[in-house]
Specification:
Layout lengths: L1 H12 L4 E5 L6 H16 L3 E5 L2 H11 L3 E4 L12 E5 H5 L10 E5 L18 E6 L14 E3 L4 H6 L5 E6 L2 H7 L3 E2 L2 E2 L1 H8 L2 H14 L5 E4 L3 H13 L4 E4 L5 H12 L5 E4 L14 E4 L6 H9 L10 E6 L3 H5 L8 H7 L14 E2 L6 E2 L14 H8 L3 H11 L6 H11 L3 H18 L6 H19 L5 H18 L1
Length: about 500
C-alpha cells in the first residue's frame, strides 16, 4: 500500500538515528516493519533484531521473515551469529544481551510500552532504532528516546480508502457508570471498584442484553475488567446457550492458542478476555466489540476498538457496544489525535488531556452521534431541543461554527492519489478540486459566502501548485476561480 511504502521510504531517507513510526491498529504495522527489515539487510548486509512483547507478535514477525530468522526464546543458551534476522521478546532478549551478535537495525514493536527503555541500543551510534506503535503515548515523552515521529496516515483516511472499516457505537448503562464515580489510581480507574461494579448482577445482565439487542449471532469480542469479572461474564453467556470462549493472562499458552483458533473458526463465537487480545491479535471477521469496562487510557481504548476495524468480505461496518462511556471520554474511533504532542510531552503534563468528546447519546436506542445531529441515525429519534437551538442561530454564527468545527473537507490527498493512479494531467486534477469546492458551495449555499469559497480555492490551489511545481500566480488563481464558478452554475 502507498502509505506503507511512504513510511518505509521516510525511515530509510531519515538522517535521524532513532525513529518512531505511528500506524493505526489494522494498518499492517508488522508487514511494514518486516519489509523495512528485509530492505535494510539487502542494502546494508547488517543483522536486524525485532523486539516484541507478546507471543502472538513474535510468531507474526517470525512467519514474515522466513527461514533466515532466529527466534530468541526461553531455554536458548547459545545464539548463533549466522542469521540475518532475530526476533524475541524484550525481557527474554534483555537477559541475553551478552550473547547476542551485533545489529545494524533494531525494531521495537508496541514501542510505547515502557520495558524497552532498559535496552542499550538507543545511545549506540552504530545501531539505528525504529519504534513502532499505534499510539505514541507514554508517561515520559517518547521523544526522550526517539529523534522523530513519522505518521504516514490517519485512521479517518484509512477508513476513507477502504483499508479499515468504520463503526457504529451504542452506549449501555451510561447513567450507572456516571453514578459509580470510579476512583483513579496510577492513571487508571481502580480495578477493584470496577470489578465490584461490573460483576454485579445488573451489569452482567446489561452485557447479555447488549449482545442480544445488537450482536445476536455475530462474531463478538468482549473486553472485561479482570479475571473474576471475565469468568462471571463467560458463565452468563454459557447459561444463555451461546458459543462463548474465554482467555486471560493465566491461560496456558498451548490452551490459549487452541481456544483462539476455535474462536476464529466459529462464525458465531463470543470470546471473553482480559488484557490478552489487545495487541497482536488479528481476526478480521469480528463484527462486534463490547467494551465491558471503563478506561482512562486512550491507547487501550483504541487497541480494543481496533480489533473490529479490519476489512473482511461483506463487512461494511462493525459495531461497538460501549458500557463504560469510553467513546464520550476519548472520542470516536476515527478522531484525529495530536500524536506529536503526546510524543513530545508524554502524559505527565495536563496539556495532553484528551477532554470530553463531542458526542450525544440517543435516549431511545443508545446510538452515539455527533452533538449537532438532528435525528438519530439508527432509530430516527428527533432531538427537538437540537432543532430549536439550531433554528435560532444567525447565519453568520452558523458559518462561523461551520468554518471552526467542520471546515470545507476536500479530500486533497485522495484526489492527488487518484490523479496519479489514473494518469490525470495536472489541470484535470485542478478541475476535480474545483468540482469538490463547487459541490460544497451548492450544499451550504444559504450560509457560505463567496469570499469564503474564494479563500478556500486559493488555499487548495497552493497545495496543487506545490504538488505539480507550478507557479501560484494570478493566471492560476483566475483559472481555479473560473473552474469553480462554472461548476457552481452547473450544479445550480
Amino acid at each position: 500500500r502507498n502509505y506503507q511504502k511512504e513510511a518505509i521510504e521516510k525511515i530509510e531517507n531519515s538522517e535521524k538515528k532513532n525513529t518512531m513510526l505511528c500506524m493505526a491498529t489494522g494498518s499492517g504495522k508488522t508487514y511494514t516493519f518486516c519489509e523495512l527489515a528485509k530492505r535494510f539487510y539487502v542494502e546494508n548486509l547488517k543483522r536486524v533484531l525485532i523486539l516484541v512483547h507478546r507471543e502472538e507478535l513474535l510468531q507474526q514477525a517470525y512467519d514474515s521473515l522466513g527461514e533466515r530468522c532466529f527466534r530468541i526464546e526461553k531455554g536458548i543458551k547459545q545464539i548463533p551469529s549466522d542469521f540475518d534476522f532475530y526476533v524475541g521478546m524484550v525481557e527474554t532478549v534483555n537477559r541475553r544481551l551478552s550473547k547476542i551478535p551485533d545489529f545494524g537495525l533494531v525494531i521495537i514493536d508496541e514501542a510505547h510500552i515502557g520495558n524497552f527503555a532498559k535496552m542499550p541500543f538507543f545511545e549506540n551510534e552504530n545501531i539505528k532504532v525504529v519504534g513502532v506503535t499505534a499510539t505514541p503515548i507514554a508517561k515520559k515523552p517518547l521523544a526522550n528516546y526517539y529523534n522523530e515521529l513519522i505518521t504516514p496516515i490517519t485512521i479517518k483516511r484509512l477508513i476513507d480508502n477502504k483499508y479499515l472499516v468504520d463503526c457504529d457505537v451504542f452506549a449501555f448503562a451510561s447513567d450507572l457508570v456516571d453514578k459509580a464515580k470510579f476512583k483513579v489510581k496510577r492513571g487508571e480507574y481502580d480495578e477493584k471498584q470496577m470489578e465490584d461494579f461490573y460483576s454485579s448482577e445488573k451489569m452482567v445482565n446489561n452485557v447479555i442484553s447488549a449482545y442480544w439487542s445488537h450482536s445476536a449471532g455475530k462474531k463478538t469480542i468482549i473486553f472485561n475488567v479482570n479475571i473474576n469479572h471475565n469468568n462471571a461474564v463467560y458463565s452468563a453467556l454459557k447459561n444463555e446457550g451461546l458459543n462463548a470462549y474465554i482467555v486471560d493472562g493465566q491461560t496456558p499458552k498451548k490452551e490459549r492458542k487452541e481456544i483462539i483458533n476455535n474462536f476464529k473458526n466459529d462464525p458465531h463465537g463470543i470470546i471473553c478476555n482480559v488484557g490478552v487480545l489487545t495487541a497482536g491479535f488479528d481476526d478480521p471477521s469480528i463484527q462486534t466489540v463490547i467494551l465491558n469496562r471503563a478506561t482512562k487510557s486512550l491507547a487501550l481504548y483504541l487497541q480494543m476498538v481496533g480489533r473490529g476495524a479490519r476489512i473482511y468480505p461483506n463487512k461494511e461496518k462493525f459495531t461497538v457496544l460501549d458500557l463504560g462511556k469510553n467513546t464520550t471520554r476519548h472520542g470516536f474511533y476515527d478522531k484525529n489525535h495530536d500524536w506529536l504532542k503526546f510524543f513530545n510531552e508524554g502524559t505527565e503534563k495536563d496539556s495532553n488531556s484528551v477532554g470530553a468528546a463531542p458526542t450525544k447519546e440517543c435516549p431511545n436506542c443508545g446510538f452515539i452521534s455527533h452533538p449537532r445531529v438532528l435525528k438519530c441515525e439508527n432509530c430516527g429519534h428527533d432531538f427537538e431541543e437540537e432543532k430549536e437551538r439550531q433554528a435560532q442561530e444567525e447565519k453568520e454564527k452558523k458559518l462561523f461554527l461551520l468554518i471552526k468545527e467542520k471546515p470545507i473537507d476536500i479530500p486533497i490527498d485522495r484526489i492527488f492519489d487518484l490523479a496519479d493512479e489514473k494518469g490525470y494531467s495536472p489541470y484535470s486534477c485542478l478541475w476535480k478540486i474545483a468540482e469538490h469546492i463547487a459541490k460544497y458551495k451548492n450544499r451550504y449555499s444559504d450560509i457560505v459566502t463567496d469570499e469564503y469559497i474564494k479563500s478556500i480555492s486559493i488555499e487548495h490551489l497552493g497545495k496543487w501548485c506545490k504538488k505539480y511545481q507550478k507557479k501560484n500566480n494570478k493566471w492560476h488563481q483566475d483559472f481555479i476561480f473560473d473552474c469553480v464558478n462554472k461548476k457552481i452554475q452547473e450544479y445550480a
